[in-house]
Design a protein that fits this description.
The chain is an alpha+beta fold. The protein is about 50% helix and about 5% strand. Helix 1 runs antiparallel to helix 5, helix 3 runs antiparallel to helix 4 and helix 5 crosses helix 6. The protein is globular. Bound molecules: glutathione.
Length: about 200
Amino acid sequence: MKLLGSLASPYTRKVRVVLAEKKIECEFEKADVNPSDNPVNAHNPLGKVPTLILDDGTALFDSRVIVEFLDSVSPIARLIPEDNRERVAVRRWEALADGALDAGLLVRYESLRPKKEQSEAWAGKQTGKLERGLAMLSAELGDRSWCHADRYTLADIALGCCLGWVDFRKPGGVSWRGRFGNLERHYDRLMERPSFADSVPVA
Ligand SMILES: N[C@@H](CCC(=O)N[C@@H](CS)C(=O)NCC(=O)O)C(=O)O
């Protein structure tokens, strides 16, 4: 298997953390998806990372599909519960964390466009989604040790990847540090795990 990804990408980080937690060997290839014509297009028409290429050449995307695949190929450290309600609860956390990230990425992409083409209203709308997303992630975590039930799951991984990227890029100047004490504690706790410590986003 080969993972096409970027060391700055939070969705790639989610897959890298899952690979590490489940002790699955996988080649990693850095892919620059900034140019319209990029090497990922040949495997994934959306030209996005992460894209996982299986040994038979099948390409899997996006990160949610990839992590589901990885969780099911190995019984080690199950990250997605089997019970329907529990699984949906974990995937809801993932949807919220990924959704906040989606908005944060749009804010960042907008800031990289030529100044005169940028829309403050558009960036403001996306910043609002990110802010509300962070507030809900904090409210739902409350004072619990883990996002779902009393154990480490994909929900914690998705939350950690969201927090790590927002901390790294601070899109639109948004930061959760100094505002959401429980998110700070949770991220620090996740960073004690080698899977997180070894995958901190870098440019
Ligand atoms: N929903 C996708 C999002 C993937 C995504 O947007 N990746 C970014 C990098 S962080 C990307 O490839 N952007 C390139 C583009 O949008 O053209 C997933 O979970 O994999």
